[in-house]
Design a protein that fits this description.
Layout: H1 4-23, E1 30-31, H2 47-53, H3 56-62, H4 73-80, E2 84-88, E3 94-97, E4 110-111, E5 120-125, E6 132-137, E7 143-149, E8 159-163, E9 168-172
The protein binds zinc ion.
Length: 180
Amino acid sequence: MISIRSFSTLAFSLTLAACSAEDQTKAVMETRAEVPAEPAGKVVKTDAEWKKQLTPEQYRILRESGTERANGEVYKEFKHQGKGTYHCAGCNALLFSSDHKFDSGCGWPSFYDPAKAENVVLKKDSSLGAVRTEVTCAKCDGHLGHVFDGEGYKTPTDQRYCINGGGLIYVPAKDAAPLK
Ligand SMILES: [Zn+2]
């Protein structure tokens, strides 16, 4: 039989575990009031410079091809964002727009098209034992996510740009109200 004392110790450690799990998902999408200036050309920085500029989560996604947790805080935030544009957190390049946002239900921010195609580069990615198409920023080579074709979504392109919201900067449109 479990004693009161060991039960309360157990409850206490469960609370601690819940708190530390929460801390790991603190990274929310960077938001700015004004549209940042587009980079003039290619943005090349040293690893040390990227580490200094980016948050640890932005660095992990953009520079180490990391993937944020599905259905995490960033995704919840994304779902409630209204009209606006999405820029690269590494170099400010315009990447996506709420005009092409759709609810794919996959747990990551999804768009059916980039907002500025020349700012997005697609690369063949054979990691994890499957051939996928990686989406990167054309200006700073930052990793953004992957794009999937022909899954049957009722969108104009039937493409799903499955993007890590943590690597983006959201700029709400001036007349935008957050979705409820
Ligand atoms: Zn970039």
